Amino acid sequence: MITVINLLVLSLSSAMVGLFGRALLLDLGIIRGFHAGIWACVVIASVFALSQLLFRVFLLLLKPTRAISLDVSEILAYASALVLVPSLLGVRFPVPYETLEKLEPLAHAAVFAVLFGLFRLMSFFAAVYGEKANRSVVAWWAAYAGIVAILAPFSLYNYLDAVAVKREIIMGETVDFAVDNTYATACAIPENKRVIMPMDAREGDHLAFVCAPKPDKEDFPEVVYVVLESYDRILTSHENPKEVVPTSRLTRTLSFSGEGWTPLTVPVAELPAETVCITLSWTPDDPDGFRSRYGLMPGEEQGYAMMVSGPWAQRVSQGRTKPSVVVILAEGLGAEHMSLYGYDRETTPNLARHAAGMIMCEEAYTSTPETPGAAMSLLTGLNPLAHGYYASSSGPLPGKVLTIAELMRNQGYFTVAYTEGRGMEKRDLVFGSGFERGFILFDDYYPLELRAEQFADSREPRSLVPAGARVTLGKAGDWIEANPDLQYFVFIRLGELGTPRYLSRYGNGFMKRTGRSSPMDVYDTAITYLDLQLGLFLDRLAGLPEDRQPILLITSTNGYEFFEPGRGAWRRSGEAKRNLYECALRVPMLIRIPGCDGRTNRTPASLLDVAPTLAALTGMPLPYRTEGQNVLEDSRAREIVSIMGDPVAQSMRSGKWRFTWQTGLSSKSLERVDEAYVIEFIDIARYRDNEIIQDNVWREPQLVDAFKSQLSTVLRDSRFGNTVLTMVPGRVPSL
Fold first, then answer.
1. In this structure, how many other beta carbons lie within 10 angstroms of the beta carbon of residue 722?
2. What does residue 6 show for φ and ψ, rounded to 5 degrees?
């Protein structure tokens, strides 16, 4: 029995000595890497155990004995390894000098060595003065030593092989993944697997990730540990995990609340300068805990996987050189129904309250009153025929065209979109339609809420109605306030006015107290509500620290036309219409630049100008010449062309004129498929003064011919592959 206890205590003490030796060698920098540490641990433990057994064999050869005192003194010698336990557990005792803290493990080792030596001396004298026994006892202890010498390397090999399988290096495959309606292109990483991630970052950058549990398991741990290991060479999935030694290792803790994607940011400065590649792994177990710290086998895997999107090289406040940007695209917000633009009803008091610090483009127009086409024109600086989102066509966007989101992401921006695209009524700006290009996080949730008022028939159930701008701007504001240090580009599309209708949350506004309210009354009331929500959002931005204020741009896809052209009568349908008339094409464009005073800009502008203007404000070169221009610097007189429909209808603002005609041509082939005719030819000044729509076709026949010729040229040249996408020399777009 005493022999069994002796061997058991020897095994435990050998393990503690091996673990302590591994930790000491790692701390001193003599070895590095997971597997090198395991080798060191097992080798030290095996050598210690084998040396003690051989010492016992030596004593028995010197004088064979069965003295109990020999076993007791050996057990006490092995038990002295207990003084190493505080060091193994990471316990540190207070010392007066920081330098001595590094020497504390050596002090533990010294105490162990002294105690072990004393008890070993006792065992020597116990053997010498003990009762003599038969020499056959030597054979048993020699056999124990032989077993240790044979089994230790075998066990080490199998152990390392098992650990290597758990920590194999893999290439991650990215898939589209949604968490709470927010999409990201992510890689599903199983626990304890290392995924290779090439790193291309500059000094001062931060590596940004977003993470979420893969919904295969409902009981995914609330807290996990992410391990980043850096390498000075590019790895492949064919690497032998046992031979891959990282240059550094970082551990981060992630807490999942179940509410969207969880961000993870790591400063590049914490990685060695020679880092060109990293691997990411995660585990539910603390990598710095006892088992992981001392090379023990990871726990049993539960089949969990974590979605990781990234990394992206991002700039943070301390090192960023470019301002953050917020763009709001409000569908259906017509400039001619905004008091900020001279409308006689007070529809936009909150925007007016912030207007002192804004640049107001007075003559801004949409590229098309169709939402997908207008949104893509804003993001690319191209007309709808060039980018492909036109009429019923949904792209795809040509591969060599880069959106402003892609360009900004490549420049170190964290890009986020809130588009209100997916829901009961809207399916245009959705993930998978091309609008997600360049966005790290893409939220196309169409918010709904329970209608507050009952229908006239009380037996009818309450219905769901769009929750609109309040929810979307609230989500965007929450994200901005939660990430003040990031250099970000946030794109927000608001569909509040996409289909103008009255909702009780708008209040009475301009609704008639008696009688039936007109469609324009409903529309103007909805604008006041949208203005309120925009005002609250702008107040939140104004509350950010001064050095965190973003560039803000507010514009729209279209306005609405409420009257029959030339008749001054309400439309027979009683609905607002999107078309190519002045009131439907003129949109607001408000730009706020931190540190700059507001002013009025009367240069004609277009949604095509947003991309080049933002590129100029952020110091970001565009890889190709767009049709737009920087509205803040370029004051050249020019014509603004808007299009819609198939066959193609075109409208051009030229000086004081608005010329609109139906070309009768197919958008794809430019072949004639219908009759061509002039829709409208008006004097804009007279129209705005007294809403007189005068037919000028017969008064200005030469201008009509000139406008037709000019628009025909625009139609021919504005298609993708013609003169629009002239590449800038030396600027090759890369993703």
1. 12
2. -60, -50
pLDDT of 300:
53
With tokens 């129209």, the residue in question is 687
CB 179 within 8 A of CB 212: yes
**Per-residue DSSP letter, 518:** P
Best CATH choice for the domain 325-625 from the list 3.90.1150.10, 3.40.50.620, 2.60.120.620, 3.40.720.10: 3.40.720.10
Res 363: pLDDT: 92
Written in H, E and C, the secondary structure of 363-392 is CEECCCCCHHHHHHHHHHCCCHHHHCEECC
Strand residues in 663-726 grouped as ranges (E): 677-683
Please give the Cα distance from 701 to 703 (Å, whole number): 5
Q: Tokens for 311?
A: 């990394």
Angle between helices 34-62 and 2-27 (to 10 degrees): 140
CB 651 within 8 A of CB 699: no
Q: Which amino acid is at 50?
A: L
> 186: which strand partners?
175
Could you say which DSSP state residue 44 is in?
H
Task: Please give the Cα distance from 711 to 12 (Å, whole number).
Answer: 88
- Strand-strand pairing, 464-466 and 448-450: antiparallel
CA distance 576 to 728: 42
Give strand pairing partners of 493.
329
Parts of the chain with a pLDDT under 70: 28-29, 31-38, 89-103, 130-131, 133-138, 140-141, 152-166, 216-217, 241-242, 258-259, 287-301, 317-320, 423-427, 451-462, 563-577, 689-694, 719-735
Query: Are 59 and 35 a contacting pair, CB within 8 Å?
Result: no
**Cβ-contact 235, 279 below 8 angstroms:** yes
Q: Across-strand partners of 641? A: 652
126, 346, 531, 651 from 362: Cα distances, Å:
103, 18, 18, 18
Residue 16: strand, helix, or coil: helix
Among positive and negative, which fits the CA dihedral 572, 578, 582, 587?
Answer: positive
Angle, in degrees to the nearest 10, between helices 98-129 and 34-62 = 30
HEC string for 223-274: EEEEEEEEECCCCCCCCCCCCCCCCEEEEEEEECCCCCCEEEEEEHHHCCCC
CATH 2.60.120.260 corresponds to the domain 169-314: yes
Where along the chain do its domains lie?
2-166, 169-314, 325-625
Determine the Cα–Cα distance for residues 294 and 501; give it in Å rounded to an integer.
66
HSE-CB at 602 with a 13 A cutoff on CA atoms is: 2
Q: Which helix (H) or strand (E) holds 458?
A: none
Residues 712 and 222: their CA atoms lie apart, in Å, by 61
Query: How is 154-208 classified by DSSP, letter by letter?
Result: HHHHHHHHHHHHHT-EE---EEEEEETTEEEEEEEEETT-EEEEE----TT-EEE
Which residues have a Cβ under 8 Å from the Cβ of 506 and sit 6 or more positions away? 525, 526, 528, 529
Query: How far is residue 586's CA from residue 242's CA, in Å, rounded to a whole number?
Result: 66
* 649 three-state secondary structure: strand
Cα separation, 429 vs 97, in Å, equals 62
